[in-house]
Amino acid sequence: MHQLSPLDAQFLMIESPTTVGHVGSLVVVDPPTGDGDRWTVDTVRALIESRLHLVPIFRQRLAEVPFGLTRPYWVDDPYFDLEFHIRELAIPQPGSAAQLGEQVARLHARALDRQRPLWELYVITGLTDGRAAVYSKVHHAAIDGVSGAELLSTLLDIRPTPRQVEPEDERFDPRPLPSRRDLLGRGLASMLSDQAQIARTVPLALRHLDQLPGAGSHGVVRGISDAASLVARLTGAERRAQVSATSRDLKAPRTPLNGPITAHRRFSFGSVPLADIKTVRRRYGGTVNDIAMVLCTAALRRWLLDHDALPQTPLVAAVPVSVRRRGQEGSAANQISVMLAELPTHLADPEARLEATRASMELAKARFGAVPPTLLSDLSLLMPTAGSGLAARSLFNLATVPGPPFNLMISHVPGPQVPLYVAGARVEGVYPVSAVSDLTGALNITLFSYNGALDFGLIACRELVPDAWNLIGYLSDALAELVQVSQAG
């Protein structure tokens, strides 16, 4: 039994009729076809059942503290039913990628049942060429991108034959659900502990409050940060790190990506060769992630031109960053922050766009390094627990009043560069399925580097981005253009 962190709890609180708080992945596989081989939902269920003890959160559910005094706890689910969490469905012929994406979008739009462990997995058959897929979703309150990748590695293998896993020392015997009295007592103790942590960490965090995405545009926020800095100087506390004088507040333009979202989703996915990314990188420098951001910039430019909505200033992307420290591996709790970067979609020349994107990423990293990496976690302590769902959603809505703090989210989760297998089926691609909200924008682009490719997963609000599949084609076209320019030079 353990309590959610303040940041974990916020992912619960932001859920609404139009916003879900889970993240997922679509794993496309090529099942074995030898004589007598059968790859079904039972095959996958048996594999996961043998490894459940490696992922404790899979058998835990939420227990709310009475009156919402403080954050919920993860507790054993005494009614855990593996068959409820692992399901199967078939795509009708012809079993195209578009059909699969539509099915994933529908599944992803449904909220998880908070009376059960917060995850579901679907084995999907009927795809072209005999392929199949595994779509899974887990609540963001339980994992972040890095811990999600760690979880995935627990369930997958590097050889067709699943590795032998040491069984549980003892059969799973869930503890009874805690009583309201027990939860209330723990909650009161937690509140005292939180107050001590607030006194220790929040004064520093308040000095950096105006560095949160979009917060600098609010005069009240700037006033709080300036006042906290003044108090720190008067009391002899360390002055906050100064951001480079060359940096500036980033202002996101209004685009069709920014507006109230609906509950409906679109999902598209695809891959580009990592070798081509490296060809561009050798010519222009930078990191693989820098080149991926260049591709996203080019694709977004074409999409905005399609909609006659290209702004004359750069878009602003929020880029999640893992702040896990050594020794925190294997922790399911969220250890993330976010940095902002400009995407020069206003530039028509591909080389100029590439250079500007690289410079933007360098500046974003410098700005991010000037604030405490735990800023989001520390400030989450200030969010009230009773009624915090309303408070969190109101805060998100207020962030959009003077204009969107950013236009969309783009993230990159590094993965293994060797083939993986799930219950003997070779993994052809791992496509992330993230989340969108009124704050984050109607489009989220997440990529996973796997076995010589960058696998892109694009989740979007159906009404605001109905043509998400076009963006997948634009990403491939952008890379082909850069490769051609690189080789010509």
Automatic annotation (TrEMBL):
Which Pfam families does the UniProt entry name for this protein?
WS_DGAT_C, WS_DGAT_cat
Q: Which InterPro entries does the record associate with it? A: Acyl_transf_WS/DGAT, CAT-like_dom_sf, O-acyltransferase_WSD1-like, O-acyltransferase_WSD1_C, O-acyltransferase_WSD1_N
Segment forming the signal sequence: none
Which GO CC annotations does the UniProt entry carry?
A: plasma membrane
Q: Does the keyword Flavoprotein apply?
A: no
Please state the Enzyme Commission number of this protein: 2.3.1.20
> Its annotated pathway?
Glycerolipid metabolism; triacylglycerol biosynthesis; Lipid metabolism
Which intervals hold domain O-acyltransferase WSD1 C-terminal? Answer: 334-482
MF terms (GO), sorted A to Z? diacylglycerol O-acyltransferase activity
Q: Name one GO biological process term.
A: glycerol metabolic process
The cross-references to NCBIfam families, in alphabetical order and at most eight, read:
acyl_WS_DGAT
By sequence similarity, the record places it as follows: Belongs to the long-chain O-acyltransferase family.
PANTHER family hit by this protein: O-ACYLTRANSFERASE (WSD1-LIKE) FAMILY PROTEIN, WAX ESTER SYNTHASE_DIACYLGLYCEROL ACYLTRANSFERASE 4-RELATED
The protein's name in its UniProt record: Diacylglycerol O-acyltransferase
The organism that produces this protein has a lineage beginning with: Bacteria, Bacillati, Actinomycetota, Actinomycetes, Propionibacteriales
